[in-house]
Amino acid sequence: MFGYHNKILIIDVSSKSWRWEDLQEEVVKDFIGGSGLGAYLLYNYCPPGTDPFSPANPLIFCTSPLVGSRLTTTSKFAVVSKSPQTGFIGDSLSSSSLALAIKGIGADAVIILGSSNRWLSLKIDESGIEFNDASHLIGNSTSMTEGNLIEIFGPDYNTACIGPAGENMVRFASISNDGGRQAGRTGNGAVMGSKKIKAISFKGYKKLNYFNEFNLSQTRKQLAIKSLGDATEKYRTLGTMANLSVFDRLKVLPTGNFRNQSNKNFDSVSGEVIHKEEKVSTSHCANCTIGCEKLVTIPNSGSAKVRLEYQSLFALGPLVGISDRETILKSSKFCDEMGMDTISAGSTCAWFMECIQKGLIPERWLDLLPTYENDEDLLKKLLNAIAKRSGIGDILAEGSARVSKEIGLGTEDFAMHVKGLEMPGYEPRSLHTMALALAVSTRGACHNRSSAYEYDFASSSDSGKLSRGQMVVDGEDYSAVMDSLIWCKFVRKVFDDFYVESSEILNDVTGWDMDPNQLARCGERINNLKKQFNIREGWVMDQDNLPKRIFSEPLSDGENRQSLSESDLGTMIKSYYDAREWTSDGLIPESKLKSLGIEC
Amino acid sequence: MAINLTVELYGNSRIITGQKLVQLKFADSKVGVVEVIQELALLFPALDGKVLDTGHKGLLSSYVFNLNGVGFQDPAKLKLRNGDSLLILPSQAGG
Lengths: 600, 95
Hints:
The complex is a heterodimer. Chain A is of the alpha+beta class. Chain A has 24 helices and 19 strands. In chain A, helix 19 (468-485) crosses helix 21. In chain A, 58% of the residues are buried. The radius of gyration of chain B is 12 Å and the shape is globular. The N and C termini of chain B lie far apart (42 Å). The model of chain B has no long low-confidence stretch (mean pLDDT 92). The A-B interface holds A 230-235, 237-243, 245-246, 249-251, 271-272, 275-276, 309-311, 451, 453-454, 457-461, 489-490, 492-493, 560 and B 8, 10-12, 14-15, 20, 60-62, 64, 66, 69-74, 87, 89-95.
C-alpha cells in the first residue's frame, strides 16, 4: 500500500516485549490515520470499563498517510488513550520531527500497553527497542529530559517525554516533544506516567513510496505558495496570541473564571503589545511553511523563551484575573517544563482562587494552602504544588471537576469544565455555536475538534440557513478529516475546496479512488466511533452540557446582554442529535452504525 | 451632515501603522467602507497590499470588518453612522 507501512508496533512495557501487527487497508480507508485511526485502535485495544491508569489502557501514537510526504504542515501525530480527565476518548495532536521519526521506524501507529515496575526510557529504531532505566531522568523538566537523551542517544533520535507532572500523574499532564511542543489536552502525559515511561525516543528513515509522486511534487509547491498568502497571515505575523485583543474587544474573552467582571486592562498582554515590547522570534515545525510559533523571550530570565499561544495566554492571564505579563510568560513556560496542559492548569487554579475568595475551602485543607502575597504569587505557588503534587497541589492535580465534586458547597457550578475537561478561551454566552460544540464534544470542552467559533465569527449570510446542530456536525466532521490526514488547522483556509483537494492528494499518496463525499463520510464515521466509545464507557445525556454558571450568570456590559439559557442549549443539542441522525437521547441507532460500517 | 468614525486596528494592521485607533471625519453622511478604505490608504500607504486590497475597494481576505464590536456583517451592507467604531480584525479566528 502506498503512503502506509501497513504495520502497527505493539509494545508491552510490563513484559518488555514487542510485536508487529498488520494494519488492514480497509481500516485506513475508513479511519485514515491520526485521530481517526487512533479512535479505531482505542476502541479495539482498550477493554470496556478500563481505568485510565490501568496497565490495560493503551497509549497510542498515530501517524498519518501524509506524514513524510513533505506537504506543508503535515508532520503531525496524534496521541490517543482513555482520558484520565474525562473517562472518555482522549486525543491530542502534536507536531514536527517526532512524527517523521515514528513513521520512519516503519510504523503507522505505536500502541503501548502494560505498566513497568520501574521508570523506563524507550529507545526505538529500525533494529528494535531498548527498555532503558530512566531513574536518572526522574524529576527532570521536559527540556532537560529531551536534552539529556540527545546527549545519550545523539541528535538523530526524536523524543516524546513527560515532565514531573506526568510522573506524578497529574490528570492534565501533557506529552512534550521537539523542544517544547505539547500533546496537551486530555491527560495523555498522566497515562504515560502511569506506565512509568519517562521518555520514548524514535529514530527511523524507512522510506515510503507514493502513488503519484509527480502530482504530489506539484501540489507541494502550490500549497507552499498558497500557505504564505492571506489565509495564514495572522498565524505568520502574530501567531494565535493575536486573538487576545480581538476577543477582549468583542467581549468573548473569558476573565476571572468566566465571571467576566474584571476591571483589569489586558492590553499589556495582547499579542500586539507583546510583539512590540518583547523580543519575539518565529519557529516552524518540520516541513511547515507557515511558522505560527512565536517564541517570546521572558523578561528577567536570561535568554529563556516560551512558545506562546493564545490559549496559554488566556488561561494563565485573564482567566485567573492576572494581567502581569512576566507572570503569564513564566507560568506558561513553567507548565511546558513540568508537562502540564495550560488550559486545565489555569482553569483549575482560577476555580480554586474563586473558592478562596468566597471562603469555600474545607477546613481540613486550610493547612495545605501556601502563604502568598498576591494573585500572581498564588498562581505561581499553586502551579508548582500541582506539578509536584505537594500540599494542596496533590488535590488540585485531580482537576477542577473532581475536586469541586469533593468540596460541594456549590463550587461545582463554577468549575468550568465539560465532562471533566476544562474550558478553552471562547465565551459560550456570546458564541452560541461554540457553546453547542463545547457541550457535545466527545473529548469534553474542546475548541479544536469542531472549529465551531468560525460560524459565530462569520456574518450571518455566510452560514446560510444551516441549523446550529448542522453547523457543529459539519465542523466536527471536517475537523475529524483534518486531524486524521493530518493537516494543521492553520492551513484550512488555504484550500478552495477542502474535500476535493484533500481527496485528490490522498489518492495521489495512496493510489485510492476516494471521492470527496467518501472522504467527508470518513469524518462522520470517525465522530460516530468516538461517540460510540464514550457510550460504551458510560456516557449519559446529562454529560452533554455546560457549567451552571453559563446559564445563571448572564454577561452584561450595560446596553448588551449576552446569555444562554439551559433550554436554549437543550434545543441546540436536540438539533445536533437530529443532524447526526442519533436518538433523542443522543445514542447512535444500530442502523446508523451499520450504514457507516462501524462494527461494535 | 458630517460624520465621525473611529477605526480600530488589530493584528498586523496595528503593527504596521503603530496605531490602535484612527479617527476619521467625512463631510458626506453617505460614507461606506470603500471611502474608509481609501482614507486609510492615504493615511497609511504601508497597509496597501498587506491589509487593504490594492484597488482600495476592500480588505484582503485575511481581514474582516466588525461594526461596534457586536456583529459581523457583509461589508457591502454596512451602514455607517456618526460615532460608529469600525473594527478591522484578522479573519482567522482559530487558536
